[in-house]
Amino acid sequence: MLTARLHKVQWLSPQGLHRLAYREWGDPDNPHVLLCVHGLTRSSADFDAMAQVLGKDLRIVAADMPGRGASDWLPNPALYAVPVYVTACVALVARLNAQTLDWFGTSMGGLIGMGYACLPDNPIRKLILNDVGPSLNLSALQRIGEYVGKPVQFQTLADARTYIRSISQPFGPHTESQWNALTDSVLVQKDQYWVPHYDPAIGQAFQNLSESTTLMHEAALWAAYDAIKADTLVVRGEHSDLLSHATVENMRQRGPKARVVEIKGVGHAPTFVQNEQIHLVRDFLL
Fold it and tell me: Does the predicted TM-score (pTM) go above 0.90?
């Protein structure tokens, strides 16, 4: 079994220096790196199962995005935005000294990957977008906004697990041990209570969402997608409420003309802890 090595790198935002925490699996000298970035409320621990399989061939690196896990919380909630996350990831990539860099991004992590991969002279060779694209379903964003950043606390780990599992049902079927891993990695104990691991301020961007602001963001995201040169794979959960069939068809035809795979029996988003999902990544990258 591969053990994750825990590291931190310093990066610069418009309001100062911060520490970004990340995990690394596999040979630290392997020049082929797969950089994995989690979804909105998740953490770098999400990629342990994938690293156990792929870490024999690749160096797997997964970051805790700012405000999550062991990374610093940011002083201004407005900094919790894709352009700032890209800046943090640029600092991390500079640290990794990869000769070949591939990207796996789930939901928010995919948007960050798009923001990075559209930049001139970016180092991303292959890009995997897990259940996300340039068009964002407003009702799905509002669903997420119903729980992100809300003050919740639990007296027992069992109660906390039940809560995280209840809001994560779109992940699809998992074993009890897989569910426990998915819940425990996003919980911390504070003052004898179990609470989510992230800065509640990350939820502010989901307040007062409107169709007009969503469409404005989509225009910028499509412009970014159309500029991507990396070989791109889009993975969609069959029952996803965030990534529509229409968006996927546009992604096949525009920009990098992505390949598309749909995973049955799953909504937003596939967790890639199941072997058949992990093998999709292996077959695309190796």
Answer: yes
